[in-house]
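Illustration: Lipoprotein.
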Amino acid sequence: MTAIPLGRTRPVTALCALAVTGAAVLTGCGGGDPDAGTNGVGKLSADKIQARTRSAAQGASAVRLSGTVVTSGRTYRLDMRLKDDGGTGSVTSGADTFKLLRVGTQLYLKADAAFWAQPDGKGGDGSGAAAKLDGKYVKVPQGDPAYKKFSGFTDKDVLLSGLLTLHGSLATDGRHTRASTPTIRITGDHGSGGTLDVSLKGTPYPLALTRAGNAGTLRFSDWGANFTVTEPKDSETVDYGQQLPTS
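Result:
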């Protein structure tokens, strides 16, 4: 075996080091694009980003949303899964927690006896009615005020169209991260009109929303993840007819 003179390794080593250094410099010069590997919406204006994310949300077959919504002076904490033909989940208002289920146009409300026995009119004729409704899926007639009040929480299109709107002049507000996903944030009137974080990976779905006027904060996930909504069993259902008791 012929030994390689040590003196010859120096130019080779120096040349390799120079090549590595040069590659690093070139990489540094060309690797500063914040939109590399993203869906590209970060390059758009805030108005176009809002239009893209609303379109993406409307086109999705399903979504899960959780957080708070303030409406008519009341705060509702939601954890809902929604799709085109129904929705299911829980709603909390004050000390009350109840479940909502919509299959097609039929809405059901499920709560405990304490919910139905309250003196604000839900319980109607007292403990007897409350006991009958305790833990049951109560059919909500479409003509009942409760239907209009609660069905919107189970309607994907109605809920999203009402929520995904920022107010005032729109602007972008930097790059952020939600659940390990990079986002671009857009704001209305520097945040007073709400903020919305939009995914920079894949479809530009909305991932987080802060509503204008301290009207709640919401997180969106499981976009396009299908789930099943089915009618509850007859043994689990109470049909009060044309109207809930004194609702």
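Reading the tokens back as a structure: The longest strand covers residues 62-71.
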